[in-house]
């Protein structure tokens, strides 16, 4: 391996630095190799600026047909791995064709970039943002350098946020009324609510609240839906009797949630559901699923 | 099968303990290295062992205790953690991330305890949150233990008045509210246990429930410890809320236990002030609840409280404790239709004890209770329930013990009615108790009215209540009880002769109903009691003569005559004879010749007609002679008749020696020292001679039948009589007569056929010695004896 790497050793080192790199918040991101790397965090409409420095390896000159930096927003479907769909693509030419003898630094700036979508790593789909530097060379092959970064978009608290309240049941068997204090939760929110037992004729064993993520990709006939249970939170142990009310308090912070994504570029959607599951002594499950909307709230700290 | 279950349980328990210890070990390691995340993880895993459903409460408790100990360490760690700067609020959130509810809530309570201690939030808010969250555990056993844990960790952190966690104005209320709520929820869980699982395990379940009851009751204890619970709060909030829960849970075991708890846990003073509320709950309890024990417990407590200090008594009056209790008991009995009789009686007995302690002066209360008891018993016939009987005996004995005075019991109009419901045996026993009480306290029953009442009470002893049913009573027992009746008759006494007369009438009336078996026991004491009165009347007459007296000895003698006549139905002629003679003697003292004569006549008739046994005849004749000898009231004619008869009887006795002795005894009838007109030496001599003749005949008979001469003892006895009368100066007794008799005796004793008898020899020797002694004494007597040669 080392030999090969040595043989095809790039002719120059390319490094990308962001102008506010020191102060910008860093978040961890899983790259395609499964490794966790720390990358800077941006928001929609932010200006992405910095410097790209090209340094030829130990005094060799580098001939090129031009240097450019691209800002790409890509969606990758896992059934079509390696094939990226760019929903955003911005280019800045950094240099005209020529030769580089020594370290050369190019400032760049993409101002007020439209990045409406958040970085997302799902079961079947990935949405990534990347800065791509390309040093084009005729015969020797181009030198390409990637720099991932993460985009997250804050949403202001919704002005209308009604609670979810519902009465469900099986006739003459089980009637419950449940209430979640809101329909829209931010990622560090707490779900508060209660379950009120109006009628219990079956012997319940326990009750859980599950958070489920439903990721649908593709469209039309090719729609692919993947559902994951992200949280299984026991609410009740034992059999309640009529008139009991069981409190719910579920902190969302320990779970890796994202905001709800609806129809991202016609490619995919991510939705969240609260699933209330009652299990009886014969392990029969009775459940009711309610969609909740997740959003990212501007963190105060 | 059952052994298998127990074995399995043992296995599950040890598996649980192993799991718990393992996780506790990792938890400790995390604690040592200040690794909060791991500490939470392993503590949650450790607590997961408590999620088991396989253990009985007993075994579960063992597991719980181990977890409890570990949680103390965790709590210490949390405390240190906050000291190190970790925010308690964050910690409070962090533990709630645990996915399983049971470990989550144990951790939450543990952190909550630290939270309250940190005082970063008011204790009341934290407690409120904790108790609300605990609703998630609906499994009875696990819920009870979790809430018990909550109660345990919070009890020193309640926002009580004077506590360091004291909050705003309503702080004590917050504390009370918290405990009440926990209590309510725990009780619900506890009651729910009863209704879960198959019906065939009912017994097992009830046993398990009783193992858990203290977890519930502990809350009441905590409530009673809250400083802020003053009488007002107790009355307005605590008690109504507790009772509401107790009544509404409609569970027999819970109601019984909790009522008892309430009574035992809170101060007497509170009970007294809230009696109405407390008692009001009783009729609302399930019919199967053993309410009598509960109420009995309450009344016992109140009784003791009343007894503890006289200062509290006014409060009892003020709150009308008796009336309230009485009403409540009535209602309970009414409400619990199928309450066994003994239950009702127990209640009344307790109330009675209470009354005796608190209102010793209110006899009407006591009577009221007995009346209520009668009402309850009425229409049920005699009791055949031994428990109820026992309770009634207790009920009836209580006033006797308290007042130490039968008088009081006699004033209770319902007392005899209650006794009526006892079966015969117990009735008698109770009567005995009453008599014992009278005897022990030496109480005199001093009015006819009371005597009437008393006899009404003990009529079980006085007559056969059920004539068809012959008692299979032990003879010994019968004697015993009749003896006590006899003793009782002696206690019916007053100094007021008029009243005493009435008493005598009453007693007579009752004892005559006793039938042949009882009369021999009851008539003698009655007779002597009456005679006592006679004697008193005499002495009175001497003192205040001329005054009009209602009761005269004559009347009494009349009564006696009739009463003793009744004995003829038994028959006990010997006893009757003795009584007649006794009466005759009394009449003699009262100078009532005709009466005395009549008594004697009766005695003679008895002797002639009824006494046929020769031994009895001997005894009787001696009695007659003895009595007659003392009679001085008779005129010559009567005297002659009676004496003549007596002598006649004497000589007709069967055995010669008896004849002889009776005849020489008769000699005394003719010589009375103190009456000069009764000194008939002629007839004395006649008697003695006759006796001597009979003695001779006896001797001969003995010779003829046995070939040996009989005893000379008769001769020696006659010799003694000779000496006696000689000394008295009966002129017909001469030295010669005496001398010859001495010779005769000597001769007989030295005879060939005589078998020497040491007793006889000694008798004779001492007789001779007496003669010698008199001789040596000097003076007139010596002169008299001088001629006699020994």
From TrEMBL, chain A:
Question: What Pfam families does this protein map onto?
Answer: Vps26 (PF03643)
User: Mind listing the UniProt keywords for this protein, alphabetically?
Assistant: Cytoplasm, Golgi apparatus, Membrane, Protein transport, Transport
Secretion signal: which residues?
none
**InterPro entries for the chain:** Arrestin-like_C, Ig_E-set, Vps26-related
Q: What coarse category fits the chief subcellular location reported for this protein?
A: cytoplasm
Record flagged with keyword Cytoplasm: yes
Q: Name one GO cellular component term.
A: Golgi apparatus
Bilayer topology reads: Peripheral membrane protein
Keyword Metal-binding recorded? no
| Record localization | Cytoplasm; Endosome membrane; Golgi apparatus, trans-Golgi network membrane; Prevacuolar compartment membrane
Which GO BP terms apply?
A: protein transport
Relate the protein's function as given in its record: Plays a role in vesicular protein sorting. Component of the membrane-associated retromer complex which is essential in endosome-to-Golgi retrograde transport. The VPS29-VPS26-VPS35 subcomplex may be involved in recycling of specific cargos from endosome to the plasma membrane.
Q: How does it assemble?
A: Component of the retromer complex which consists of VPS29 (MAG1), VPS26 (VPS26A or VPS26B), VPS35 (VPS35A or VPS35B or VPS35C), VPS5/17 (SNX1 or SNX2A or SNX2B). Component of a retromer subcomplex consisting of VPS29 (MAG1), VPS26 (VPS26A or VPS26B), VPS35 (VPS35A or VPS35B or VPS35C).
| Family of this protein | Belongs to the VPS26 family.
Name-wise, this protein is Vacuolar protein sorting-associated protein 26B
TrEMBL record, chain B:
Keywords assigned: Cytoplasm, Endosome, Golgi apparatus, Membrane, Protein transport, Transport
Q: Name one GO biological process term.
A: protein transport
Any one cellular component term from GO for this entry? Golgi apparatus
Q: Classify the protein's membrane topology as the record does.
A: Peripheral membrane protein
The subcellular location is: Cytoplasm; Endosome membrane; Golgi apparatus, trans-Golgi network membrane; Prevacuolar compartment membrane
Per the UniProt record, one Pfam family is Vps35
Q: What does this protein do?
A: Plays a role in vesicular protein sorting.
> Would you identify the family this protein belongs to, as annotated?
Belongs to the VPS35 family.
Database matches in PANTHER family: VACUOLAR PROTEIN SORTING-ASSOCIATED PROTEIN 35, VACUOLAR SORTING PROTEIN 35
- Protein name per Swiss-Prot or TrEMBL: Vacuolar protein sorting-associated protein 35
Species in which this protein is naturally found: Forsythia ovata
């Amino acid at each position: 391996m080392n030999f090969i790497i040595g043989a095809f050793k790039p002719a120059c080192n390319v490094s990308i630095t962001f102008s506010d790199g020191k102060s910008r918040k860093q978040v961890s991101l899983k790259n395609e190799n499964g490794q966790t790397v720390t990358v800077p965090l941006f928001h929609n409409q932010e200006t992405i600026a910095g410097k790209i420095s090209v340094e030829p390896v130990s005094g060799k000159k580098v001939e090129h047909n031009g240097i450019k930096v691209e800002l790409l927003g890509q969606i990758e479907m896992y059934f079509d791995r390696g094939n990226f769909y760019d929903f955003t693509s911005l280019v800045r030419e950094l240099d005209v064709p020529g030769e580089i003898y020594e370290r050369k630094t190019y400032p760049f700036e993409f101002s007020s970039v439209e990045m409406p979508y958040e970085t997302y790593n799902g079961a079947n789909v990935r949405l990534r943002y990347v800065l791509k530097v390309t040093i084009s060379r005729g015969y020797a092959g181009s030198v390409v350098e990637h720099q991932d970064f993460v985009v997250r978009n804050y949403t202001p608290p919704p002005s209308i946020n009604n609670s979810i309240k519902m009465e469900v049941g099986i006739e003459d068997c089980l009637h419950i009324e449940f209430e979640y204090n809101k329909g829209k939760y931010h990622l560090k929110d707490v779900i508060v609510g209660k379950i009120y037992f109006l009628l219990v004729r079956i012997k319940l064993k326990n009750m859980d609240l599950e958070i489920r993520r439903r990721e649908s990709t593709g469209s039309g006939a090719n729609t692919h839906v993947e559902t994951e249970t992200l949280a299984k939170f026991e609410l009740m142990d034992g059999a309640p009797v009529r008139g009991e009310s069981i409190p719910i308090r579920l902190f969302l912070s320990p779970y890796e949630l994202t905001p709800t994504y609806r129809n991202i570029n016609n490619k995919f959607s991510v939705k969240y559901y609260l699933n209330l599951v009652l299990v009886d002594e014969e392990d029969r499950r009775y459940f009711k699923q309610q969609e909740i909307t997740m959003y990212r709230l501007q963190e105060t700290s | 099968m059952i052994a298998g279950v127990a074995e399995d349980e043992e296995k599950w328990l040890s598996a649980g303990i192993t799991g718990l210890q393992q996780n506790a070990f990792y938890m400790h390691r995390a604690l040592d290295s200040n690794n909060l995340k791991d500490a939470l993880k392993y503590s949650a895993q450790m607590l997961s062992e408590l999620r088991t459903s396989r253990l009985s409460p007993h075994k579960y408790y063992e597991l719980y205790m181990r977890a409890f100990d570990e949680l103390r360490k965790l709590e210490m760690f949390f405390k240190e953690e906050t000291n190190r700067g970790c925010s308690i609020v964050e910690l409070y959130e962090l533990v709630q991330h645990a996915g399983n509810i049971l470990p989550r809530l144990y951790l939450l309570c543990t952190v909550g305890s630290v939270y309250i201690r940190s005082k970063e939030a008011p204790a009341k808010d934290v407690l409120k949150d904790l108790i609300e969250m605990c609703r998630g555990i609906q499994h009875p056993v696990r819920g009870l233990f979790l809430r018990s844990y909550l109660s345990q960790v919070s009890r020193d952190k309640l926002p009580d008045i004077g506590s360091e966690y004291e909050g705003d104005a309503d702080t004590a209320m917050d504390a009370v509210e918290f405990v009440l709520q926990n209590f309510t929820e725990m009780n619900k869980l506890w009651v729910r246990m009863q209704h879960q699982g198959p019906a065939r395990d009912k017994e097992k379940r009830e046993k398990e429930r009783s193992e858990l009851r203290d977890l519930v009751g502990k809350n009441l204890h905590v409530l009673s410890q809250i400083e802020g619970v003053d009488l007002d709060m107790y009355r307005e909030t605590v008690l109504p809320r507790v009772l509401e829960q107790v009544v509404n849970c409609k569970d027999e075991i819970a109601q019984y236990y909790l009522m008892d708890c309430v009574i035992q846990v809170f101060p007497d003073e509170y009970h007294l002030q809230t009696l109405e509320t407390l008692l009001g709950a009783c009729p609302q309890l399930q019919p199967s609840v053993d309410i009598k024990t509960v109420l009995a417990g309450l009344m016992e407590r109140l009784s003791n409280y009343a007894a503890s200090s006289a200062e509290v008594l006014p409060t009892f009056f003020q709150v009308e404790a008796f009336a309230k209790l009485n009403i409540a008991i009535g209602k309970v009995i009414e409400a619990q239709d199928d309450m066994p009789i003994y239950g009702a009686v127990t209640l009344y007995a307790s109330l009675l004890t209470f009354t005796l302690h608190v209102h010793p002066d209110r006899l009407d209360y006591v009577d009221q209770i007995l009346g209520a008891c009668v009402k309850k018993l009425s229409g049920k016939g005699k009791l055949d329930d031994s428990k109820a009987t026992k309770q009634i005996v207790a009920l009836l004995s209580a006033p006797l013990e308290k007042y130490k005075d039968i008088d009081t019991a006699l004033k209770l109009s319902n007392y005899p009615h209650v006794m009526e419901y006892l079966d015969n045996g117990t009735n008698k026993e109770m009567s005995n108790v009453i008599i014992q009480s009278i005897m022990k306290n030496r109480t005199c029953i001093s009015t006819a009215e009371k005597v009437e009442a008393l006899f009404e009470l003990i009529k079980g002893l006085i007559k056969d209540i059920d004539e068809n049913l012959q008692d299979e009573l032990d003879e010994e027992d019968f004697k015993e009880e009749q003896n006590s009746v006899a003793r009782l008759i002696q206690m019916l006494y007053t100094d007021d002769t008029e009243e005493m007369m009435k008493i005598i009438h009453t007693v007579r009336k009752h004892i005559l109903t006793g039938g042949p078996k009882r009369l021999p026991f009851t008539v003698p004491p009655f007779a002597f009691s009456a005679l006592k009165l006679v004697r008193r009347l005499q002495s009175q007459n001497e003192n205040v003569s001329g005054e009009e007296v209602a009761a005269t000895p004559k009347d009494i003698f009349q009564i006696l005559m009739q009463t003793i006549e009744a004995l003829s139905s038994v028959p006990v002629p010997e006893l009757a004879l003795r009584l007649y003679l006794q009466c005759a003697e009394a009449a003699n003292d009262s100078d009532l010749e005709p009466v005395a004569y009549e008594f004697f006549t009766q005695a003679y008739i008895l002797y002639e007609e009824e006494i046929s046994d020769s031994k009895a005849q001997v005894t009787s004749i001696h009695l007659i002679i003895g009595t007659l000898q003392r009679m001085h009231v008779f005129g010559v004619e009567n005297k002659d008749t009676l004496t003549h008869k007596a002598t006649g009887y004497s000589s007709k006795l069967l055995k010669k020696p008896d004849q002889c002795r009776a005849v020489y005894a008769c000699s005394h009838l003719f010589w009375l020292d103190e009456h000069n007109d009764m000194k008939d030496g002629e007839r004395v001599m006649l008697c003695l001679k006759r006796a001597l003749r009979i003695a001779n005949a006896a001797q001969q008979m003995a010779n003829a039948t046995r070939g040996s001469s009989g005893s000379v003892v008769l001769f020696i006895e006659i010799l003694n009589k000779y000496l006696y009368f000689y000394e008295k100066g009966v002129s017909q007794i001469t030295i010669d007569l005496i001398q010859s008799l001495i010779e005769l005796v000597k001769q007989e004793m030295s005879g060939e056929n005589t078998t020497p008898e040491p007793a006889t020899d000694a008798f004779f020797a001492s007789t001779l010695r007496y003669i010698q002694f008199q001789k040596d004494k000097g003076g007139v007597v010596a002169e008299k004896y001088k001629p006699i040669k020994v």
